[in-house]
Design goal:
This protein is an all-alpha fold. The chain has eleven helices and no strands.
């Protein structure tokens, strides 16, 4: 398995110190080369902030964040290994998911909702990893849909500020509003890249 996973890492990654890359070998099997996922239910890790990756992994490890398999995987890593994984993926370039469809009218409404409810933390239209909030624009839409559903159903913990804003958005705009946001994020525009 290690040989197979190694093929998913770039030459640049393999040139890095082995102890910085080794824990990430297992991740590329699902999360893709350098953390850019090809599977719509699996998020891209590349380019996310170090602190965000650590927080999510710790959430999986503690059970505060619901998962199908990540909770079991995260339990197998030490704090130091999680930090090395976060160091590696935070340094990789984020590549927006390719081939996602977006309805321009719904995306326009989603842009308005993003500006009103999400922009304060998910800056630059959801493309910034700053504020340790995760990159939304260009992320896989099915993954975002499942994650938001888990958060709205209290299956996964979210920061208080996000919970308040997401619940308010959902009360006012309902599932249609979530769909509009997802159409906005599906556009995938990031630093001039439009898949």
């Amino acid at each position: 398995m290690l040989a197979t996973c190694t093929l998913g890492l770039s030459t640049m990654a393999l040139a890095e110190a082995p102890d910085a890359v080794l824990p990430a070998y297992v991740c590329v099997g699902c999360h893709g080369t350098n953390g850019n996922s090809n599977g719509p239910a699996i998020p891209t890790l590349a380019g996310a902030s170090r602190d965000y990756i650590i927080e999510v992994m710790e959430g999986f490890k503690s059970g505060e964040r619901v998962s199908t398999i990540m909770g079991r995987i995260a339990k197998g890593y030490s704090k130091e290994e999680i930090e090395r994984i976060a160091d590696f993926f935070s340094r990789q370039a984020f590549v927006p998911a390719r081939g996602q469809r977006s309805d321009p009218k719904l995306a326009g409404e989603g842009a308005r909702l993003h500006e009103q409810y999400c922009e304060k933390c998910h800056a630059k239209g959801g493309t910034s990893p700053e504020n340790d909030a995760g990159i939304l624009t260009g992320q896989w839409t099915p993954y975002l849909r499942y994650t938001l559903a888990d958060m709205l159903a209290d299956r996964s913990r979210m920061p208080k500020k996000m919970k308040k804003r997401l619940q308010k958005l959902h009360r006012k705009a309902g599932d249609a509003g979530i769909g509009q946001l997802l159409n906005y994020y599906a556009r995938g525009k990031l630093r001039g890249v439009d898949p």
